[in-house]
């Protein structure tokens, strides 16, 4: 029987890649989007589009009719918990309430590995977006619906955004190992979790098999993605000189300061036993990205 999944957040940078790769694997994918016309320019024709907004619970109820397995991939980009609405807080709570009404049987969600393993923060820092996303995560856990959480390491998919004018810019002093993941391996794990009772009511760490610092990983990445690209190091203070809007600059500084002291250890053995061991190297993923661009 063909596997099916509904995705909320399928037009985001990571969401669109997961949606495409699940679709390519033969999973029947439905994407709930705010703007069907815009989404159709991003997602292939084989993915069904349904219009709804996470701020409108009634629209979600209509959109989720018939959904058995739901995957949520949303992203918080503000550090202000006092805002009246966050997609990963009120938005997820609305999704959960709609899922209970429509009989969704399994909810999956993505978040950062730091949420599940705060001990990896070498200096004891807390990633402040976790404060915002926590009520949504708790709403899923308390919903009575089977859940699966994917708590992911740093995504290689973001690396091309660091490259400009043949330079890969690294901001901060990144010396600790990170076990980089990617949407190819994540999509494989999500596909393996559909209808898999061993994945129900579980929290999985998602890491790659290669632990290395950001400069080391960047060097491997550019070898496959854009040979000849120069790795350039900048201090955190350089963010203030980038001319970014204040909120964006504050978020970037906090995020990079946190990543700078994140000292990952391999903590994904349980994940590999249940959902399969990743087999995509940094170089191979970079080559795949280069060939697709």
TrEMBL record:
Give the range the annotation lists for the signal sequence. Answer: none
Which residue ranges does UniProt annotate as crossing the membrane? none
A Pfam family: NmrA
**Positions of the NmrA-like domain:** 1-270
SUPFAM superfamilies linked: NAD(P)-binding Rossmann-fold domains
Q: Which domain of life is it from?
A: Bacteria
Q: What is this protein called?
A: NAD(P)H-binding protein
Tell me which species this is from.
Answer: Microbulbifer variabilis
Q: What is the lineage of its organism?
A: Bacteria, Pseudomonadati, Pseudomonadota, Gammaproteobacteria, Cellvibrionales
């Amino acid at each position: 029987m063909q596997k099916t999944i509904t995705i909320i957040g399928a037009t985001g940078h990571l969401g669109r890649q997961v949606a495409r790769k699940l679709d390519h694997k033969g999973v029947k994918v439905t994407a709930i989007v705010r703007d069907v016309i815009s989404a159709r320019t991003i997602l292939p024709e084989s993915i069904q589009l349904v219009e709804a907004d996470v701020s409108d619970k009634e629209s979600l109820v209509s959109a989720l009719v018939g959904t058995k397995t739901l995957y949520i991939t949303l992203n918080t980009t503000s550090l202000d918990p006092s805002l009246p609405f966050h997609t990963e807080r009120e938005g997820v709570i609305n999704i959960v309430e709609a899922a209970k009404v429509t009989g969704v049987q399994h909810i999956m969600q993505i978040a950062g590995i730091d949420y599940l393993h705060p001990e990896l923060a070498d200096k004891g820092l807390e990633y402040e977006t976790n404060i915002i996303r926590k009520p949504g995560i708790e709403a899923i856990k308390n919903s009575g619906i089977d859940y699966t959480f994917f708590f992911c390491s740093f995504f290689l998919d973001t690396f091309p955004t660091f490259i400009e004018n043949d330079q890969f810019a690294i901001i901060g002093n990144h010396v600790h190992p990170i076990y980089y993941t990617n949407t190819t391996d994540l999509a494989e794990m999500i596909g393996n979790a559909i209808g898999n009772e061993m994945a129900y009511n579980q929290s999985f760490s998602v890491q790659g098999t290669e632990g290395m610092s950001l400069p080391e990983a960047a060097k491997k990445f550019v070898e496959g993605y854009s040979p000849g690209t120069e790795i350039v190091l900048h201090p955190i203070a350089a963010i203030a000189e980038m001319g970014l809007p204040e909120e964006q600059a504050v978020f970037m500084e906090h995020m990079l300061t946190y990543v700078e002291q994140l000292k990952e250890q391999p903590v994904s053995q349980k994940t590999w036993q249940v959902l399969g061991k990743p087999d995509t190297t940094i170089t191979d993923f970079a080559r795949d990205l280069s060939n697709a661009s």
